[in-house]
Amino acid sequence: MRGIRLETQSNNLPACRFYASYGFRLGGFDRLLYVAIDGVETETALFWYLFLDSLGVPDR
Questions:
Q1: What is the spatial distance between Cα 38 and Cα 41, in angstroms, rounded to a whole number?
Q2: So what's the pLDDT on residue 59?
Q3: How far apart are CA 60 and CA 43, in angstroms?
Q4: Nearest Cα to Cα of residue 31 among 47, 42, 20
Q5: pLDDT value of position 20
Q6: Per-residue pLDDT reduced to its tens digit, 3-59
Q7: pLDDT the model gives residue 29
Q8: What is the DSSP letter of 53?
Q9: Using CA atoms, how far apart are residues 59 and 32, in angstroms rounded to an integer?
Q10: Closest by alpha carbon to 10, among 51, 54, 46?
Q11: Which of 15, 16, 31, 46 is least surrounded, with the fewest CB atoms within 10 Å of its CB?
Q12: 25 has which bridge partners?
């Protein structure tokens, strides 16, 4: 495994700050991911990445 990818909503600022503080990098977004879900259809999905080689974890 070379890294970890996770997704959160753009309105979840505490989570975004948490991920950034642990070294995750914002790598993309999707404005249409939630359009079919009532109550969150206007939210944007944010994709965060943490590459393990940047943490000194050896590649296996």
A1: 6
A2: 61
A3: 37
A4: 42
A5: 96
A6: 999 999 999 999 999 999 999 999 999 999 999 999 888 999 999 999 988 666 666
A7: 97
A8: G
A9: 34
A10: 46
A11: 31
A12: 49
The dihedral formed by the CA atoms of 7, 11, 13 and 18, expressed in degrees to the nearest 10? -10
Find where tokens 């080689």 sit: 53
Quickly tell me which residue has 């600022």 as its tokens: 13
Provide the residue type at 33 as one letter: L
HSE of 44, CA atoms in CB hemisphere, 13 A: 11
| pLDDT at res. 17 | 97
Supply 48's token pair. Answer: 């965060």
**Spatial separation of the C-alpha atoms in residues 36 and 1, rounded to whole Å:** 32
The single residue listed with the structure tokens 């890294």 is 3
Q: Is the pLDDT assigned to residue 60 strictly greater than 70?
A: no
